[in-house]
């Protein structure tokens, strides 16, 4: 009983987490998110509500955790043959995904997460894959923070706080600016 | 009874709105926001809950409305004598304000607003005042969207989704980029 928590990940604890995540995903398909409760998740996952409260504290943190997990892309960014092309394909897909109902919900949930920094890590990892493909073939690679600040940030900002999302033309202007073109 | 709603603004309707806004501001000082309810606001403002539901639909929209109202700055942006200086002073103050507990709450509320575009309008109006000061003295003025996308967006994005806000150094890099320097 004195084992540190980490020892248990990968075993029972990982299975419990997966069944709770999976219950949340299923409930979000069938219900308005405002109607989903911790007891509903617990019943469907076959655990007690206190298991959920102990691990996540409250429902918002659990939803944020599921949202972050969903954010991890299944596939590598598309390879188009050029740095500009790879970034553009990735950014257009990102704009498209975030500008959807699930994308907006995900952004809302992730803001409640105590580990919201994971968001930038996941995006940064995707961009790093693209940059590494072109290392040695491009004079000067932009840094990840520049790409996040100049391309990702306005996509997210406009979706959350403006009347309309970035147009593809505006997105391309931001890409040019980030790549110094 | 057939008068259009607009006729009444500025009179009784404006006074009712102000007393409801003021009740919200007072309650948010005294309570956790999760504990503030429509009946509490109604009691303090001296109206019935249905007055609030009729006008705002639900508490989130009312909170968003109050947050947008608070966002309107009381004063013009500081005049430092140069375009770069004015933008920098404004951006540093904006970063500071948004990176506070009230700033974060405001951003969270505004996202629920059906008129969240007001956010970009208010920021745009402030930036326009700065640009107009320097019209004729600067070769080419940047456009407002460029300033919003390159300076404001990463400030907001990093506060909401990263481990840490932009540093002043990073903010200055964004300002240089936006001004083409």
Automatic annotation (TrEMBL), chains A, B:
<keyword id="KW-0804">Transcription</keyword>
<dbReference type="InterPro" id="IPR011075">
    <property type="entry name" value="TetR_C"/>
</dbReference>
<feature type="DNA-binding region" description="H-T-H motif">
    <location>
        <begin position="37"/>
        <end position="56"/>
    </location>
</feature>
<feature type="domain" description="HTH tetR-type">
    <location>
        <begin position="14"/>
        <end position="74"/>
    </location>
</feature>
<dbReference type="InterPro" id="IPR050109">
    <property type="entry name" value="HTH-type_TetR-like_transc_reg"/>
</dbReference>
<dbReference type="GO" id="GO:0003700">
    <property type="term" value="F:DNA-binding transcription factor activity"/>
</dbReference>
<keyword id="KW-0238">DNA-binding</keyword>
<dbReference type="GO" id="GO:0000976">
    <property type="term" value="F:transcription cis-regulatory region binding"/>
</dbReference>
<protein>
    <submittedName>
        <fullName>TetR family transcriptional regulator</fullName>
    </submittedName>
</protein>
<dbReference type="InterPro" id="IPR036271">
    <property type="entry name" value="Tet_transcr_reg_TetR-rel_C_sf"/>
</dbReference>
<dbReference type="Pfam" id="PF16859">
    <property type="entry name" value="TetR_C_11"/>
</dbReference>
<dbReference type="InterPro" id="IPR009057">
    <property type="entry name" value="Homeodomain-like_sf"/>
</dbReference>
<dbReference type="InterPro" id="IPR001647">
    <property type="entry name" value="HTH_TetR"/>
</dbReference>
<keyword id="KW-0805">Transcription regulation</keyword>
């Amino acid at each position: 009983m004195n084992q540190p928590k980490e020892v248990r990940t990968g075993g029972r604890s990982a299975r419990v987490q997966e069944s709770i995540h999976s219950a949340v995903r299923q409930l979000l398909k069938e219900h308005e998110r405002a109607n989903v409760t911790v007891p509903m998740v617990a019943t469907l996952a076959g655990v007690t509500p206190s298991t959920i409260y102990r691990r996540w504290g409250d429902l918002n943190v659990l939803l944020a955790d599921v949202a972050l997990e969903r954010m991890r892309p299944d596939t590598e960014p598309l390879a188009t043959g050029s740095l500009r092309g790879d970034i553009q394909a990735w950014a257009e897909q990102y704009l498209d995904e975030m500008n959807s109902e699930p994308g907006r919900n995900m952004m809302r949930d992730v803001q409640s997460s105590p580990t919201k920094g994971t968001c930038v890590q996941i995006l940064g990892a995707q961009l790093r894959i693209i940059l590494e493909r072109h290392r040695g073939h491009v004079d000067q690679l932009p840094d990840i923070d520049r790409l996040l600040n100049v391309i990702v940030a306005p996509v997210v900002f406009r979706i959350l706080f403006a009347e309309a999302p970035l147009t593809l033309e505006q997105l391309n202007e931001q890409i040019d600016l980030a790549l110094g073109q």
